[in-house]
Amino acid sequence: MDAGRRSFVASATGALAALAALDWTEVARAAEHAHAAAAAPGASAEFTALTAAQAACVAAIAARIVPTDDAPGATEAGVVYFIDRGLASFLSANREDFQKSLAEFEARVAAAHPDAGDFAALPAATQDEVLKGVETTAFFGTLRLWTLFGLLASPAYGGNRDGVGWKLTGFEEAHRFEPPFGYYDRDYPGFVPYPPEAAT
Fold this sequence. Notes:
Structural class: mainly alpha
Distance between the termini: 38 Å
Number of domains: 1
Number of strands: 0
Helix content: 40-55%
Largest sheet: none
Order of helices and strands: HHHHHHHHHH
């Protein structure tokens, strides 16, 4: 796994704390929607908030944020479906502003590359150049955050298909038993501390 790529995803996960106040029922539904769509490659997935053209643009941007190379990326994780479902539910308050910003982005691309048609049709290297020009904007920051959220959603809720995001960060789904033991349930009536000799 490329260390730089892993570091990028791992360092960016701190921004996900900003989404802690969201309606987690809707988040889970969005993850399930993403999983169902990504689980059927080649199938005609229906978008609920984005048009097919908008979805293609969002998917292309997400694919450059976390590209597919020797490891799967945002495309394999079904990030675009997660974002679409989010815009139709727990991110609906952001939908109008996001679509306006997306339209402005697409207009900018069309003006600079009239022969390409749209962002998704540009070569990867050109896409990266375009994104470097907007990487400090609120639009890109928002889409970057949503991409990472869709990538790292727990597979238990249907997102992060096949643990793609966890593989990128090196996270292993396993219980962690580290001291201090018992501090969180010491006042539980049924809790009995281990004898000193058993704890050593």
